[in-house]
Automatic annotation (TrEMBL):
Family annotation (SUPFAM superfamilies): Aromatic compound dioxygenase
Signal peptide: 1-22
Keyword Mitochondrion on entry: no
One term of GO molecular function: iron ion binding
Keyword set includes Signal: yes
Alphabetically ordered keywords of this record: Signal
Entry-linked InterPro entries: Intradiol_dOase_core
Membrane-spanning intervals of the chain: none
Protein name per UniProt: Twin-arginine translocation pathway signal
Provenance organism: Sulfitobacter aestuariivivens
Length: 153
C-alpha cells in the first residue's frame, strides 16, 4: 500500500539519483540597435585596419554554459579609420577552444554620442543569431569586452 511516508521516501531517493545540472545559463538577447549597419558575410580577418584597440569576448552555450569553439563573431564600429557602415570597418573572427575571441581594430570613437561597438553571431549553424551593441565606459578606453550565451535553434 502506498502511504504518504512511502511516497516521500521513494521520491526523495529518486531525486538523489538524478545527475547534477547547471543552474541554467540564460541566452543573450539581441540588443536594440545591434544590427545597425550590419553587412552579412564580412570576411574572417586577423584584424580590422591598423589595430590599436582590442575587442574581446566569450561565447558559451545557453543552459550548461559550455564554451563554444569555432563560432563566427562579426565585429564593426565607428573608428578613427572609418564609419561603421564602411566595409573596411567590418571583420569577423572565430572563437578558440575555450570559447574566447578577440579582434585588434582601430580605436573606437563616439558615434551618435556614444563610443560603442557592434557584434553579431550571424552564422547559419545550430545557434540563433544575436546582435550586441556594448557601450564603452569612456571613449578613451582601449579595450571592450562582450559575452555571448547562444541558444540552440
Amino acid at each position: 500500500m502506498l502511504t504518504r511516508r512511502t511516497l516521500i521516501a521513494t521520491t526523495s531517493a529518486s531525486l538523489l539519483t538524478l545527475p547534477a545540472r547547471a543552474a541554467g545559463l540564460a541566452p543573450t538577447p539581441t540588443m536594440r540597435g545591434g544590427a545597425n549597419n550590419y553587412r552579412p558575410g564580412a570576411p574572417i580577418v586577423d584584424r580590422i585596419g591598423g589595430g590599436g584597440f582590442l575587442m574581446t569576448g566569450t561565447v558559451r552555450r545557453a543552459g550548461d554554459g559550455v564554451p563554444l569553439e569555432n563560432i563566427r563573431i562579426q565585429i564593426w564600429a565607428h573608428t578613427t579609420e572609418g564609419h561603421e557602415r564602411d566595409q573596411r570597418s567590418h571583420g569577423a573572427t572565430l572563437t578558440r577552444a575555450d570559447g574566447t575571441f578577440q579582434m585588434d581594430m582601430p580605436q573606437i570613437v563616439p558615434a551618435f554620442g556614444q563610443a560603442h561597438c557592434h557584434l553579431a553571431h550571424d552564422d547559419d549553424g545550430p545557434f540563433q543569431t544575436v546582435f550586441l551593441r556594448p557601450v564603452m565606459s569612456r571613449s578613451s578606453d582601449t579595450t571592450l569586452h562582450a559575452d555571448f550565451v547562444l541558444q540552440p535553434v
